[in-house]
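Tokens for chain A. Residues wanted.
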């Protein structure tokens, strides 16, 4: 029983660390969007040294949380921070 509980605590600690990392990346992305509302996902990936997929996932999370939105098309649109 103690082993299971210890494993759950370890998992919870890892999960907390991962969430903190994701939040840090999301905050960095928001800051970059504030500086340049026309910045692309590819540019964000280059600036943050993260994979494009990870940046896209972070942006999706931000959108779902109601923190930003894309106005216009992917090519000619811009980011609006809410």
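Reply:
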């Amino acid at each position: 029983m103690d082993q299971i509980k210890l494993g759950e605590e370890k998992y919870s600690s890892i999960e907390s660390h991962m969430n903190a990392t994701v939040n840090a990346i999301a905050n960095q992305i928001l800051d970059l969007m504030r500086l340049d509302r026309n910045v692309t996902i590819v540019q964000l990936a280059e600036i943050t040294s993260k994979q494009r997929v990870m940046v896209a996932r972070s942006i999706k999370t931000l959108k779902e949380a109601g923190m930003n939105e894309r106005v216009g098309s992917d090519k000619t649109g811009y980011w609006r921070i809410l």
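Residues 36 and 66 are 19 Å apart (CA to CA). The chain has one domain: 2-81.
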